[in-house]
Amino acid sequence: MHRERTAVSGAGGSTEDTGRTEAIPDAPSAGAAPPPGPSSVPKASPRGPVVAALMMGMALAALDGTIVSTAVPQIVGDLGGFAVFSWLFSGYLLAVTVTLPVYGKLSDTFGRKPVLIAGIALFLVGSLLCATAWSMGSLIAFRVIQGLGGGALQGTVQTIAADLYPLKERPRIQAKLSSVWATSSVAGPALGGLLAGYADWRWIFLINLPVGAVALWLVGKYLREPGRTRRTVTKVTDTGRSARTTSAERHRVDWAGALAVFATGALLITALVQGGVAWPWLSAPSLAFLGGAAVLSAATVAIERRAAEPIIPGWVWRRRTIAAVNLALGALGLLMVAPTVFLPTYAQSVLGLGPIAAGFVLSAMTLSWPVSAAFSNRVYNRIGFRQTAVIGISLALLVLLAFPLLPYPGQAWQPALIMLLLGAALGLFQLPLIIGVQATVGWSERGTATASILFCRQVGQSVGAAVFGAVANTVLASRLADPPSPGLPHDLDSVARALEKPSSLTAEAADHLRRAVDAAVEHVYLGAAFAAALSLLVLLLLAPRRFPVLTEKDDS
Fold it and tell me: How far is residue 211's CA from residue 215's CA, in Å, rounded to a whole number?
């Protein structure tokens, strides 16, 4: 049996309306030798147990991104370290983000199974260490170890899902994974609060162990990957006889590139996360981190150009389709900061809802997103990946522009409806782009391509948190420049804390603060709409009208 790969334009394996075949840069053409990688696709893996393991892994990675947030008071009360507690989130996010491209390349080189097993194991070791932390410094360090495993979970799970299912069936599995991610992210704060309030904050990390152990066992037992490509070498002896030897193809790991990528990402994410929080944006530490990130970026490019098998290959940015999707989903990460970070503050401070009710307002997006994603194949099979994503992001742009039109103070169902519509729009936008890129590459490149998308989305979120945080605080400062009573706070976190106990404020002061928060969040949503417009322009100007899809045909 051999695999014949052909590059065609369109979605769902169909040719585009002109009927011509479109070649993919740096990709094998029909009749050419396949790239290094497996000799066959891992169809022998039973899908049920493997999908269950993937969903468990996705749930773990998503939960631990948010579950700590509501347990901070208990953790700080036990361990101290209030001044640096934000690194419980930043350290995890940093480790996940900077390791995504490294794990993507390793999964293409050595296979998905060993990378996923190593990632789950590292995540569980980090969880166990977090539960035994004796100080805030040790807990932050162990959270970084958790994040190193979480990076393998995020990227490799998405890649294995694409390996297991053909193009027409991928929306179904990706929609399931999206549902798990969304539900886990929203449920994380509530679960963390329950465990911290009624048990002990250390159980936040201990509950990962049984779930992760089951996922590890399922992957080890049921995920079967194809054999690696083998190379035959013919040697001629001094007697004139030829001897053939066969050996597995050997790969060289670009450790210098991996270290450079890690260091560059660490400085950049640290600058974005801590700028304007731990130090002013124009201060010496901020400029030092940003300058160091720029220098290391140049060094990384130089190292990767010389590497035989670079961690971030040049084709990731030379291929028009992948480059456009990377930029478009980077803008998605930017705009997602508005609902996930600022909407809960709006719901509690402006609408007066409790934390659980505010979570339900946000969760409306998680209801419509996977449903829309699951049905997106019916759209892109007819009109193509790019056009489906264009429709999705155009609808998202309109929804984001509608948020500032909500009345003040309004009712909870109004932002919930906005989030429901936004989730439906983004389901049409994100999933077709991810599936479209995965369909344009072969097995040996799919991990790298998937990781590059997720990496750009994560970086977009970090940029969005920094930029929109600055926007919100600037608007608040301008609205509170002439307060009705002295002593009112001037930044978003302090205002939100003050409104948690409105009895300490006069009615006029409380209303003034609520209106200031309302104006700040409205400006953030306008910024998110601008990010959606950027993504739309990228798709229209850079992405090809029809994605060059690789179809695979089995020949016996």
Answer: 6
